[in-house]
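> tool_call: predict_assembly(chains=two)
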Amino acid sequence: MTAVHWIRRNLFATWLDGIVTLACAALVMRYLPPILDWALVNATWNGADRTDCAAGGACWVFVRVRFGQFMYGLYPPAQTWRVDVAAALLVGFVVPLLMNSAPYKKLFGFLTLVVFPPVGVWLLLGGLGLPVVETRDWGGLMLTVFMTVYAGICAFPLGVLMALGRQSRLPVIRTLSVVFIEFWRGVPIIAVIFLASILLPLILPAGVGVDRLVRAVVGLALVIAAYMAEAIRGGLQAIPKGQAEAAAALGLGYWRATWFIVLPQALRLSLPALANEFIALLKNTTLVLVVSLFDLLGIVHAALADPKWVGLTMEAYVFAGSIFWLACFGLSRWSAGLEKRLSAATKH
Amino acid sequence: MDEGRPALHAALPISRATAILRRFLYDARVRDWLAQLAVAGAIFLLLWFFVENASENMVKAGIASGFDFLWRTSGIDVPFRLFEYGPQDRNIDLLYVGIANTVLVSVLAMVFATVLGFAVGVARLSRNWLLSTFAGIYVEFVRNIPLLLFVFFWYFGVVRALPPPRASLDLGGIFFLNNRGLSIPTPEHAGPFGYVLAAFVLGFAAFLALRLWGAGRQAATGRPFPVVPAGLALVVALPGLAALAAGLSTPWNVPVLTGFNFRGGFALIPEFVALLFALVTYTAGFVAEIVRGGILAVSRGQTEAAASLGLRPGQILRLVVIPQAMRVMVPPMTSQYLNVLKNSSFGAAIAFPEIVSVFMGSALNNTGQAIEIIAIVLGIYLAVGLVVSAFMNWYNARIALVTR
C-alpha cells in the first residue's frame, strides 16, 4: 500500500472525512508552533533568576533553580543522599517485580513489602545513628512517592482481607466488609484526609501525638484499601469455585486453601486493576495540600507565591504535570501489557 | 471440614465431658459463630476505645457536642449561592448553600462531561486517522494527570489570568468572561419559564403515547413510525419554542460594565468556572474510554446480521448497536458519575464554596464540632451516592439482557 493509498483511506475516505482532516490539520498548524516556540525554541534554560528569562518563552530557570526543593522539599541538603538511597532500594526491589522475565519474584516481593518499609522510614526519618529529619521538612516528589508507597503497602493487606471478607459465607464478616468498602468508596478523598487529620488525634488517648504525615497516609490507605478490595474481588470472582473445593477435598482448611490456592491466582488476575488503583492513589496524594503537606504539586504551587518568580504558573504546572504524567502513563502501559498477557494466558 | 477429627482420638481414654466439649468446638457451625463473635467483639472494643478517648479529649478541650450548633448564626459569608443567604443566617442554611453548590457543579459537570466524552470516544473510533489520534492523545493526556492539577491549571493558569472586567472577553454582547468569572444574563421574571417545564412534561408524555401508538401500528400494519424525529420535535423543539417565547416575553437583565466590575445578570465566580472546566475536561477522558469500550463490545456480527435483515445504517445504530453498548456502559458510567460528585470536593482546594469547603472547612473552624460536622458531610455524600447508584441500578436492570 503506497502512501497515497494510505492517505486516501485514512484521511480522505469521504468528503466529510476530508473536511475533518483539514480542520484537524488547521488546528495543529495554528496551535502547535506557538506551543513549541514557548516550551523549547524561545525558552530560557540557563541562568540564576528571573531577569535571565528575556527570550519571551518558558522560563525553565525557575524549575532549575528550585529543582532541589521540588525533589526533596526542605530536607537538609547534606542529608538528601538518604532519600536517594531509599529511592534506589525501592527501585531495585520493585523493578524485578514488574519485569515479566525477572526471577525470584517471591524474594523481591518479600523485600518490597516487608524489608523496605522499616528500612525506608529509618533512612528518611533518621535515628539509630542517622541525624533525625522531622517530617515537616519533607516535601516535593519525595513526599509524593513516600505517601503513595506507604499508603499502598498499608492498604494492600487490608484490601485483601476486605475482599475475602466480602466473599465470606459468614454473615457478620460479610456485612462488616461491605460496610467498610462501601463507606470509604462513597466519600470524597479530600474529606477523608480532613477527617483523618482532625479525628485521629481526637480518638486516640490524650498525649499520643500522631504526625500529620501519618494521618494523611492513614486516610489515603483507608480509601485505597476499599478500592483495592473491589479490584481483588474481581480477581476472586474469576477463580472457579472448583479450585477452593479441590483444595478443601485435599484437606486444606480455609486459610491454607486461600493462601496457597485461591489468592495467588486471584491476585495475578487482579494485578491490572490494582495497578489502576495505584495510579489513582498516586494522583490523589496531591490532595494532602489541604492539610498543609507539600507534595510535588503542592510545593511547585507554593513556589509560585515567591515574588521573585511570580507569574510562572505554566512552567510550574507543566513541570509537575509531566512528572505525574510519565509515572502514571508508564504504570498504565505496564498494566495494559500485563492484562493482554493474562487474557492470552487464560484463553487457552 | 474438621468433623472427622474427634474420631481419631476416640480410642484415647478421655472423659465424656472433654469429648462433648471437643465435639462442640470442632463443629464447623460453632466455629463459624465463634469466629464472627470474636471479630464483632474486637471491632466493638476498638470503636468503644475510640469513643471513650474522643469524649474524654472533647471534655478536656472544652468542645461542645450535639447538633444545636446547626441552629446558631454561622457568621460565614459565601461568595456564591443560588438563594438568599448571609452571615447572619444559621449554620444549617450554610449547609444548604454548600449542598446546592455541590449539586449544581456536579450535575453540570456530569452533563457536559458526558457530551464531550461521547464525542471524544466516538472520535477515537473514527476511521479518520488524524481525528482518532487526536482523541487518543487527549484521553492518554487527561487520564494520567491528577485532577488537582487540572483544577489549579484552569483556576490559576486560565481563569485568573484572564483580562480584568474592563477588557473582558465579550461573548455575543451578553456573556462576559474575565478574571472575576463569567457574567451571564438573567431574566427579570422567572414566571414564564414555568411554561418551559410544562411544555417539556407535556411533550414527553405525548412522545411516550406516540411511541406506544407507533409500535402498535407497526405491529399491526408493518409500517414503521418515525419515532426519532417525532420525539425530538416533542421533547426538544416544543420546550425550546416555549423557552424562546418565555425569553422574548420577559425583559433580560444583561450584565453591564459599570466602573471596575459588571452590574446586573448573574456572576459565575472564577472558582466555579475553573472547577466546572476541570471536572468536565478530566471526566470526559474517562467517559470516552467507557464509550469506546461499550461500542467495541458489540460484536461485528450484530451489525452484519442487522444489515442482512435489511435495516438501514441509522436503524442498525439505534436498534441494535446502541442498546447493546448501553448495557456494557451503564455500570462504569455510574461510577464515573459518582466520581464527579465526589470530585466536586476538589473545589475546596480553590475555596469554591461547596459542601466540604464551607462545612468541613469554615463551619468546623468556627464551631469546633468536628465529629458532628464530619458525620453530616460524609452522610450527605453517602446518601446522594446511594440515590445515584439506586437510579443507575434501576436503569441498568431495565436495559439488562433478559435471558430466558
